[in-house]
Amino acid sequence: MRVLAAMSGGVDSAVAAARAVEAGHDVVGVHLALSRMPGTLRTGSRGCCTIEDSMDAQRAANIIGIPYYVWDFSERFKLDVVDDFIAEYSAGRTPNPCMRCNERIKFAALLEKAIDLGFDAVATGHYASISTDDHGNRELHRAAAWAKDQSYVLGVLTADQLAHSMFPLGATPSKAEVRAEAAARGFSVANKPDSHDICFIPDGDTRGWLAERVGAEQGRILERDGSVVGSHEGAHAFTVGQRKGLNLGVPSPDGRPRFVLEVKPATNEVVVGPKEALDIAEISGSKFSWAGLAPDDATVPFDCEVQIRAHADPVPAIAVLRDGVLVATPTTPLNGVAPGQTAVIYVGTRVLGQFTIDRTVSAVPMPASS
């Protein structure tokens, strides 16, 4: 097969590209230039897709012996990931930019261009596996090493995208083994730290970054009964479940800490309360997709597991498609769920699908605001 290897400049994608070559594929490496500031360099392990990363990717491609190109996707990235991130926070939701990047850039824009150029598949360094059922349908599954499993952030992939995807690291038992293989191959990135945080906010100051783009306007912090307990400089800086940075002027009657329960961008208000009020009995969303073959009849409730963060534990649940909305009811309450997060549905190790959380139902009824 003709395979386009997406090379981020990290150790995982370099080893994935090398393994694709050794599997007998005709491989071409490509690095995506996503930054609108091409002179930016990484700081430690923050950020990705910078000039330094591009050079690291090219050195790995040279050792592997494959052609290497840099494709400028910065405009598409700004529109589909960065601007979406700002809009979601402005609406009081908590988006996952890595999900949007996989959905709209790596497995949409990149894959579309790859297919137009005659490639059969795109290979990445994600830790996930693809298998085929008895009828030839492709399925997305967790990686062999659950500690490094990245199937959650790939939950947005559709059946058509899975048909053209390749994850050479899926069966690897540990990241240490990948680093050892990279060192044996002579890759300079063998001990390069993993990137973390939001790649387009490399200093990690999300609140300051948003304030520059959305603006800061003082608003009220309220208890669930509507009483004012503090003030803030912009509701967009808060997310459900947050505890730090509230700066409340009125202590809680029981002395326990308060957490953000709701963000109201229309009124620029933040609602806080006790930790137990974060327990969620039901989540749902109308923006959903199936990763491969859809259930025979999703309108019939089915057993599954739901995962709401990349590093969260999956929770047993019952899911059902009701009036065009995918609803998941966990057997034990979820904690600190925010609208805008992605819920990924698993059946065993298989990723069945995902939805963006539009609505949550609290396990602890919230008193009406005054």
Tally of alpha and pi helices: 7
The CATH superfamily of the largest domain is HUPs
Mean pLDDT: 89
Briefly note the structural class of the backbone: alpha+beta
Query: How is the CATH topology of the largest domain named?
Result: Rossmann fold
**CATH level-two architecture of the largest domain:** 3-Layer(aba) Sandwich
Largest sheet: 11 strands, antiparallel
**Under the CATH scheme, which class of the largest domain?**
Alpha Beta
Number of domains: 3
Large-scale geometry:
globular
Order of helices and strands: EHEHEHHEEEHEHHEEEEEEEEEEEEE
How many strand elements? 20
Helix content: 10-25%
Summarize the structure in words.
Strands 5, 6, 12, 13, 14, 15, 16, 17, 18, 19 and 20 form an 11-stranded antiparallel β-sheet that branches. The protein has a 5-stranded parallel β-sheet with strand order 3-2-1-4-7, sandwiched between helices. The longest helix is centred in the N-terminal third of the chain and has 20 residues. The protein has 370 residues and is of the alpha+beta class. Strand 1, helix 1 and strand 2 form a beta-alpha-beta unit. It has 3 domains: 184 residues, Rossmann fold, CATH 3.40.50.620; 58 residues, SH3 type barrels (Roll), CATH 2.30.30.280; 85 residues, Elongation Factor Tu (Ef-tu), domain 3 (Beta Barrel), CATH 2.40.30.10. The chain has 7 helices and 20 strands. The chain is 24% helix and 28% strand. Helix 1 packs parallel to helix 2 and helix 1 packs across helix 6. Its EC number is 2.8.1.13. It is an enzyme of class 2 (transferase). Belongs to the MnmA/TRMU family.
